[in-house]
Design a protein that fits this description.
about 200 residues, alpha+beta, OB fold (Dihydrolipoamide Acetyltransferase, E2P), 2 domains, 5-stranded mixed β-sheet, about 30% strand
Length: about 200
């Protein structure tokens, strides 16, 4: 029986090819780094294009008004300030609590209790003002207490029968406010205020 000879040159070539492949795999060559970044970019683009891949929760700021719990989407909240900085405006409608000086700009502060027809308790100078981003300027809403920042999943929300100011209510009784509806109320209040002055 005739033995086949080993082609040592071919063995050396294969070993050298393996060594180069290992070096390339373990090394951080610019071409390899760029290829990795491209793959990551494609994965991220696919995740953003596919809403199912992203979380369907909404980050909100939860707060209290009297015994009720409410929430506003974080994207609508510019900042939170203490209510004590608010100054009354003589002759303003009852829904207006006053104005707040925000870095040299005067912003109106509205009484969310009155807007939502929540029974009044004794007037307090405590609480917080949620500065909201409106289509024009920011405006404030007075709330009693800030609770937490959390996420509400869309499947948690149930739409009430007569929902004018809410997008939905969670099983725990947290009501997600509809800022667009509140902005419409604020526009009506502005209109009524200007009619009272004329």
């Amino acid at each position: 029986m005739k033995q086949s000879g080993i082609d040592w040159e071919q063995v050396r070539e294969r070993l050298e090819a393996s060594r180069l492949a290992l070096e390339e795999a373990s090394g951080a060559s610019p071409a390899r780094i760029e290829a990795v970044y491209r793959r990551r970019a494609v994965r991220l683009a696919l995740r953003e294009a596919n809403p199912k891949a992203a979380l369907d929760g909404v980050p909100v700021l939860a707060f209290r008004l009297a015994q009720e719990r409410y929430a506003i989407e974080l994207k609508d909240v510019a900042e939170v300030l203490p209510f004590g900085l608010c100054t009354r405006v003589p002759g303003a409608p009852a829904q207006y609590l006053g104005i707040i000086n925000l870095r040299g700009d005067l912003r109106p502060v509205l009484d969310l209790r009155r807007m939502l027809a929540i029974p009044e308790e004794a007037a307090t100078t405590s609480g917080f003002v949620l500065m909201l981003r409106g289509p024009g300027d920011e405006f404030g809403l007075k709330v009693d207490r800030i609770e937490e920042v959390r996420e509400i999943r869309t499947e948690e929300l149930t739409l009430p029968a007569r929902a004018t100011h809410t997008k939905g209510i969670t099983s725990g009784g947290l009501m997600l406010l509809n800022i667009e509806a509140l902005l419409n109320i604020e526009a009506l209040l502005e209109e009524s205020f200007s009619k009272e002055k004329s």
